[in-house]
Design a protein that fits this description.
Blueprint: H1 2-26, H2 30-52, H3 55-64
Helix pairs in contact: 1-2, 2-3
Length: 65
C-alpha cells in the first residue's frame, strides 16, 4: 500500500515536472528540450518502431519530431 502511494506521488511529481519542462521548451530552452528527449527518446522510438514496423522510418520519424 505504501509503495503504491509512493509510486503515485512520484508519477504526479514527474507529470508536473514534465509540464514545467514543457513550458521551458516552449520558451526556447534547448537544455529543457534535451532533458525531455533523454527522458522519452527510447519510449518514443519503441512506439514509432512498433507503429511503422521499419527501423529507418522510425528513426526518421523521431528526427522529424
Amino acid at each position: 500500500m505504501i509503495e503504491a502511494r509512493r509510486a503515485a506521488a512520484a508519477a504526479a511529481t514527474a507529470a508536473t515536472d514534465d509540464l514545467s519542462i514543457g513550458a521551458r521548451v516552449s520558451a526556447g530552452d534547448c537544455a529543457a528540450f534535451e532533458l525531455l528527449m533523454r527522458r522519452y527518446n527510447r519510449r518514443l522510438y519503441r512506439l514509432a518502431r512498433a507503429s511503422l514496423r521499419d527501423e529507418a522510418e522510425a528513426k526518421d520519424a523521431l528526427q522529424d519530431a
